[in-house]
Amino acid sequence: MSPETTDLRPGHRISRVIKGCWQLAGDHGPVDHAAAIADMEAFLDAGITTFDCADIYRGVEEMIGAFVADLRRRRGRETADHVVVHTKLVPDLSRLADIRPEEIEAIVDRSLARLGIERLHLVQFFWWDTAIGDPVGALEVLKECRRKGKIANLGTTNWDADRMGPFVEAGFDVVSAQVQYSLLDRRPAGRLADWAGARDIRFLCYGTLAGGFLTDAWLGRPDPGFAFENRSLVKYRLIIDEFGPWDLFQELLACLRAIADRHGVSIASVATRFVLDAPQVAAAIVGARYARHLPQTLEVFRLALDADDRAAIARVLDQAGGPSGPVYGLEGDRTGRHGRIMKYNLNTDPNAPVLGAIAP
Asked: What is the structure's pLDDT at 268?
């Protein structure tokens, strides 16, 4: 079965699985840049046309740019133009109070130069704290960049309806909201989905596999605590704590494994299909450094969950304690367990330490 596609707006067609490139930024361990760039072609040829990156993912825009340039040289502009790049614009927390409009446009220009393309397909805007500085003015700059032809479409990252609302009501055409969404974290469902549906805003979902926790690799394993090699695993281990005890997480994995066995697929495919079928979801962002798991990633397009599958999953999810509250509400609290593991000034200092350790 061919990979599914959808249109965020006329002329902006994306694959419903997006290759997430955060793992190429270095925080997940050493990266073989040449191999990662070469493997991007395998994703494109398989129908995964859309790549997610950010201005704060160190070196990633440049890697995608090298891939597109090489593709253009070897296979022509028409093939290279099939690549759709979603990037982000995330001013440092320390700069929110005084960042100037020309600096915002300079970030856009820098992304264009790094990617080597004439127009950014989607810029996903994020402002760490809307009580600081002038986020409306910053988004106005992006709107002007869109008028100039530097940006095709605008989206947001990690904002709920209360954060997006003032911008949408002010006339900004927000086409997408990138949100964390998985079987373990269903905060975008319900109110936000209803609000977004009424305004033609689609979800681009990260964390669909919870950093790899929602895979066969974790079935039957004891609770590891928080001794991990990267912040991504710490982040999603905290989400498991919100979801319920480790035993309930294992019950969910066992349920998913039984469903996967009936369909001849992996736990990851069941977890991804669940999110893709949710209201307002345009795509799931699946992180991958290389193409070794690409065949498994493509399984989701031949999987259809039936009523019995959904009922079995619901019986487990009904026992979950959380997470609850707005999208990014837990993470947005810089004094809490979720907020203390974030890095807030990645443009200024990619190697800056996190704010604090995980409390037991």
From this structure: 96
Per DSSP, 25 falls in state G
Burial class (CB in 10 A: 0-12, 13-18, 19+), 321: exposed
Contact present, 153 and 9 (Cβ < 8 Å): yes
Report residue 56 as tokens.
């704060």
pLDDT digits (tens, 9 = 90+) for 20-52: 987 777 665 567 878 888 889 999 999 999 999
The CATH architecture assigned to 13-341 reads Alpha-Beta Barrel (3.20)
pTM for this prediction:
0.94
**Per-residue confidence (pLDDT) for residue 331, from 0 to 100:** 94
**Contacts for 34 with CB less than 8 Å, ≥ 6 apart:** none
Average pLDDT over residues 217-237: 89
Buried b (16+ CB within 10 A) or exposed e, 63-92: bbbbbbeebbeeeeeeebeebbbbbbbbbb
3-class secondary structure, 54: coil
Residues 6+ apart with CB under 8 A from 340: 334, 354, 355, 356, 357, 358
- Give the chain's radius of gyration (CA, Å): 20
Query: Which sequence spans correspond to the domains of the chain?
Result: 13-341
Whole-number pLDDT of residue 190: 87
Determine the Cα–Cα distance for residues 332 and 9; give it in Å rounded to an integer. 29
Helix (H) or strand (E) holding 231: helix 231-243
For residue range 194-206, what is the model confidence (pLDDT) as tens digits?
Answer: 999 999 999 999 9
How far, in whole angstroms, is CA 85 from its chain's centroid? 13
Beta strand 174-180 pairing with 151-157: parallel
Please tell me the predicted confidence (pLDDT) of residue 45.
95
What tokens appear for 214 in the block? 């929602």
